[in-house]
Specification:
Layout (H helix, E strand, L loop, with lengths): L3 H14 L9 H6 L17 H10 L19 H8 L1 H7 L15 E4 L3 H9 L4 E6 L2 E5 L1
Antiparallel strand pairs: 1-2, 2-3
Helix pairs in contact: 1-3, 3-4, 3-6, 4-5
Length: 143
């Protein structure tokens, strides 16, 4: 699932799909039904930045803060659950135990930000700045 689409698609979904839109981006319902949430982007259609998807999965709003209470907020995830969807859930769906965690023998493909997304929550995650990127344990970019 690409939660960042919610940020750009919620208005059109309501307008075009009507009541069927309640099934779109039903993250909490999918998780409650036992789905492994494998979250990601849909680059280049949506930005590959995982902060966008984390924000969308938790806040269920667009960058302008609309709708104010979130679009279908009963389907929002906690930041912990959204984070799991971008890490261990995506790795589980890919079928490779070397992905999605920091441990000896893991790939160590990661971005380090200047804040803790679990502490920042939806309101702060978009403002975090990347400080370093690693691919297979090697630093490929740093601020």
């Amino acid at each position: 699932v690409q939660p960042s689409h919610l940020m750009t698609d919620w208005r059109a979904a309501d307008r075009v799909w009507g009541d069927r839109a309640r099934r779109a981006f039903a993250l909490r319902s999918m998780e409650a039904a036992g789905f492994t949430l494998a979250l990601g982007s849909d680059a280049p259609v949506e930005p590959p930045d995982p902060r966008e998807g984390l924000f969308a999965a938790v806040a269920r709003r667009d960058r302008a803060g609309e709708p104010g209470d979130g679009w279908r907020p009963d389907e929002s995830l906690s930041m912990v659950r959204a984070w799991a969807g971008y890490t261990t859930g995506a790795a589980r769906a890919a079928g490779d135990p070397r992905q999605g965690r920091l441990a000896a023998g893991a790939f160590a493909d990661l971005v380090a930000w200047d804040g803790d997304p679990l502490a920042a929550g939806a309101g702060g995650v978009l403002g975090m700045r990347p400080m370093m990127t690693m691919v297979e344990g090697e630093v490929v970019w740093s601020a």
